[in-house]
Write the structure tokens for this entry.
Amino acid sequence: MKNLTSSFSIKQESKSTDLIVSINSKKEILFNKKTKKFVHNVPEKLPSQKFKIFQSEDLGIFLVNELEHLQEECEYLSKRFLYSYLDEDSLTLISRAFQIYDWIYKQKYCSRTGNKLSQVREDLSKHCDSCSRDYFPKMSPCILAAITFNKKILLVKHNNEIRTLSTVIAGFVELGESLEDCVKREVFEEVGLEIKNIKYLASQSWPFPNQLMMAFSAEALNDQIDIDNNEILEANWYSEENLPQIPPEPSLSNTLIKNTLKTMT
Ligand SMILES: [Zn+2]
């Protein structure tokens, strides 16, 4: 599937040449075990609610909820089981599908008045009749930071569910903060290092639950690590030859670590 472009419509009808993504009420996504894909041909009987979420050249991709009849080679996969099938294309697809699903089906009330919001509208907004506010889906910006010093890269083990992997510094952007300030703050908080030459590399949408990840590299002024024991279990400098186990593709941390190793001085 080439050139997936975000496109949203509640009105557009699906053609027989279009494709669907299906997510059920347990937030499991329909997967074809034979093709290893998360997109499917439009079945004869579609659930009544469908939302166009992508345009890819001349075909549309529609988000629907649970299908009544499943083909034998299809099953609904929970988050835990879909990681191993992710590549860049499927991550783009899943990321938008899950986040739009949450917006449509899980975000139901106005945060000011508690009033029930309208159904989603053509511009993806929902409206509160009580306070006349329009709401749009939200995402959480996060930074990743690969820090280098003297041809070594700093990798840490975070105190979270994935303790076996060593990765880059990560954190949520604070309200009112620039991305560069966030990188400086997170690096100082987590490992006590001051940095210079902050460079942007790339970004990636991550749907568990709604992060927009932005990857940076920077150079440390010295190599004296002082770790924050609440957030970090361990932090070390690594050369390219003795890397520990890092996050797999297609995660942005993987891209950032590999790119930093290639370009570090
Ligand atoms: Zn309201």
Q: What stands out?
A: The chain has a mean pLDDT of 94.
